[in-house]
Amino acid sequence: MRSMIDILTVAPGKKKLTQSGWYSFNAPCCHHNGHNADKRQRGGVRTDGDNWSYHCFNCGFKCGFTLGKSISKKTRNFLSWCGVDDQQINKWNLQSIQHRDLLDSVITKKKKDPVVKFKERPRPEGNLIYVGDKKHQPFITYLKKRGLSHSAYPFLVTPDAEGRQAQRLIIPYTYENKIVGHTSRYIDNRQPKYINQQQKGYVFGTDLQKPEWEICLVFEGIFDAISLSGLALCHNTISDEQASIIRKLDKRIIVVPDQDKTGLDIIDRAIELGFELSLPNWGTGVKDANDALIKYGRLPTLLSIIESATNNKIKIEMMRKKIAKRIQC
Prior knowledge:
Blueprint: H1 7-10, E1 16-17, E2 23-25, E3 43-48, E4 51-56, E5 62-65, H2 73-81, H3 86-109, E6 127-128, H4 137-145, E7 156-157, E8 168-175, E9 178-186, E10 194-197, E11 215-219, H5 222-228, E12 231-232, H6 240-248, E13 252-256, H7 261-272, E14 276-277, H8 289-296, H9 298-308, H10 313-328
Parallel strand pairs: 11-12, 11-13, 13-14
Antiparallel strand pairs: 1-2, 2-3, 3-4, 4-5, 6-7, 7-8, 8-9, 9-10
Helix pairs in contact: 5-8, 7-10, 8-9
């Protein structure tokens, strides 16, 4: 990317790009600093977008430019030694300061994270799952099929209920250790499978996070979150309210979409929010993290997620196309 001050054009003579990313050329600063004129290309410039830094590996002179800041005296001297007149230097300096004012204006107008509050709800009707109760065995068996222990979360069950309330595995939603909703999963596979009581902006699993953890995994599904001690969005996007809650955790955020059409929809939103994405190559038949846990185990699944995490848009696009192709097959 070309800098506002195109230093590679300004710097005199031929340039050579080194393996370490420096452009080397004959340093114009040496004889101004009491040294012999450089003839061995010991002046070096490294660029980073609009910013650049200069270092002479002969006389030790250093300077640089950062867009949004005033041009320093040392940088002015360097530009002058490269043949740039004072009028042009002053023009660049003014442009840089104006850019800073523009950035300050954008930051001031930037939308603030919404304040999210949830109303406390009564505990859902149901019994805490208990391995000693024969009526609870179908629910325990269902959890085992999903690679989970009945003690992985304070699950509630309704073995004695009838009609629409029967055969429910209930997962209470908590926030700051208060119940704020719940979801019900019918283990007899009636449709719809899930019934949610979820307040706007709620993210499941914040109470599962520990202060010493550096990474927080974000999933779509609630069983993915329980399986791997992460968060669950419980739908295929990330709302502004949910993003606010996730950011407040102050951890490295890795979003792990389901590897299906709805999962592909969440990718652009995660990129927009600046979160990392992970789309591990789990193979055919593995749609989400809970499927991966069942097939590979907890630790291998966790490692595959962390190893695949990236915010590189090219890598993400390649993974997205690979999954999209698999879905179509």
